[in-house]
Amino acid sequence: MRPKNLFQHIQSLWNALQLTGSHLYQSIRSAVPKNRVTLHQDGSTITLQYPHEKLPIPDRGRYKLHNAIEDCIVCDKCAKICPVDCIEIEAIPAPDVIGTTSNGMKKRIHAAKFDIDLAKCCFCGLCTTVCPTDCLTMTSEYDFSVFDVLEHKISFAEMNEQEIIEKKQIWAEHLAHKNEAAKPEISNEPTYN
Q: What is the pTM of this model?
């Protein structure tokens, strides 16, 4: 190695150590006690002791999806607008009104299946904006990590297999009765043209 290159290497190393030392000094100066969670106005950062300390959550943040199934009218708008198809719905129509939602809308469809796969979800919030009853919302829970990716598929439907079969049978009987009533009467009299 030539002496000129050696001098340049030493000078470069010295500049790097000075820069590192100045950052270390600034971080020590701006340290806060462990029991306080604050963000400095000057842009310096601190380390939070997660999960004991957490940053404040914005009111309009997009986090975990939740469906209040008792208010859901199973309109399927959320599943249709979802860009990644993470919402699966199986609906069973009912012949009569089966209840009302908290905002007064009448429920005429049973939710046999209402699953949301949060592993696929891109948290865009489109499904919550099209919901007519506002039953599909995003909660403030942002830490829902699990060991198995299959645990991210959340089912909100409350019907068991027996109830699903029973409701499908009631709807099939209703359709059969409706079709029978709508059949035109066939007369035995010949028609002449």
A: 0.66
